[in-house]
Design a protein that fits this description.
Structural class: mainly alpha
Helix content: over 70%
Order of helices and strands: EHHEHHHEHHHHH
Number of strands: 3
Number of helices: 10
Largest sheet: 3 strands, mixed
């Protein structure tokens, strides 16, 4: 029986990269893998890991706070009852779920020498990471359609974008993401895993886990690539089509109307650009260039957190109605906090 090599404090990790290896050590059982090890950034020094932990934790807190604020004001402020804000708080909800699926597990990995995850937990994380990423793009597509109707058919906007239609569009976004995700993740779940069991990523990524399969994965690769292309092309083409039609409609407007229409689209266009640029950066870092695994993981984490981190800032800075609603909400909380402090001082 071959004994795995050791290197520094990671001597417990099986370092073989041959996904058809039949070697067996303490991290897996002869009849199959019982858990996975998330490699993450365990090769970094303790100080670097602490710095990354604090940075990522602060970013996660900002993501939760900013997106939760958007959800709260959009649901409670009667002045924000338009379809645009309904789609916006659904986007914020997806961003919270997406980052919560990945970041907490990675944060725990900075504090332990071995970050393990159960087989079921790994595949659940894998599924929701992919599904929520597709859902985000699908909701951005719905928001592009909303802008198209508002600009190209303003007189019929209220009649078209009714609440049932809004709910149907959101349900369609979720249904589309499930359709694009289930085939690849279910096929990976059914494959045999006999070792090694180290996922060379910050979380259970589909391509990273697939390298651990003890069988031929050529069909899996074709299926996952096909559905990934379907998800990206469908959403990308629909968003592009919406803005081409918006652009053609804007050509017929006066200067003042054109500026107003562009202002309503600029925020969404910025978010779409950041989202697709981030996805492109992850793809390039994993398939082009001689990057180390640590660099790839850091790029993946930054790109995954970038859109949820920037969305609240972009929408609150560029949208006057949302900015004023947040200000009104904070002003309501401030007097309540002051009164509580006065009551505490009186009792003391």
């Amino acid at each position: 029986m071959d004994k795995p090599t050791s290197e520094g404090h990671n001597s417990y990790l099986p370092l073989s990269t041959n996904h058809r290896s039949s070697s067996v050590n303490s991290t897996w059982e002869p009849d199959g893998v019982t858990f996975f090890i998330i490699q993450g950034l365990t090769n970094l020094g303790k100080e670097e890991r602490i710095i990354l932990f604090v940075t990522l934790l602060l970013g996660y807190i900002i993501i939760l706070g900013g997106n939760s604020m958007i959800i709260y004001v959009a649901m409670t402020d009667p002045k924000l009852n338009s379809p645009m804000y309904f789609f916006l708080y659904n986007l914020s909800f997806v961003d919270i779920l997406y980052t919560t699926t990945t970041i907490p597990k990675m944060l725990s990995g900075f504090l332990t020498d071995m970050n393990t995850i159960s087989v079921v937990g790994c595949f659940l994380q894998m599924h929701f990471v992919i599904q929520l990423a597709v859902t985000e793009k699908a909701i951005l597509t719905v928001m592009a359609y909303d802008r198209y109707v508002a600009i190209c058919n303003p007189l019929r906007y209220a009649a078209i974008m009714t609440r049932p239609v809004q709910l149907l569009l959101i349900a369609g976004a979720w249904g589309f993401s499930i359709f694009c995700t289930l085939p690849a993740t279910s096929m990976s779940w059914q494959r045999p895993y006999c070792g090694p069991n180290v996922v060379k990523n910050g979380w259970c990524d589909l391509s990273s886990v697939r390298r651990l399969v003890c069988a031929d994965t050529s069909v899996d690769n074709i299926v996952s690539l096909s559905f990934a292309v379907l998800a990206l092309l469908t959403t990308g083409v629909l968003i592009l089509t919406s803005y081409v039609l918006i652009g053609l409609s804007m050509l017929k407007m006066g200067v003042a109307q054109r500026l107003k229409a562009f202002g309503t689209c600029a925020t969404h266009l910025t978010v779409v650009s950041i989202t697709y640029s981030s996805a492109s950066c992850v793809y390039i870092s994993y398939r082009v260039g001689n990057f180390s695994s640590e660099v790839r993981i850091i790029v993946a984490v930054l790109c995954a957190a970038l859109t949820p981190f920037l969305n609240p800032m972009i929408y609150s800075l560029r949208n006057k109605e949302l900015r004023e609603s947040i200000r009104r909400t904070l002003s309501r909380f401030r007097p309540a906090a002051v009164l509580r402090m006065k009551d505490v001082n009186t009792l003391s």
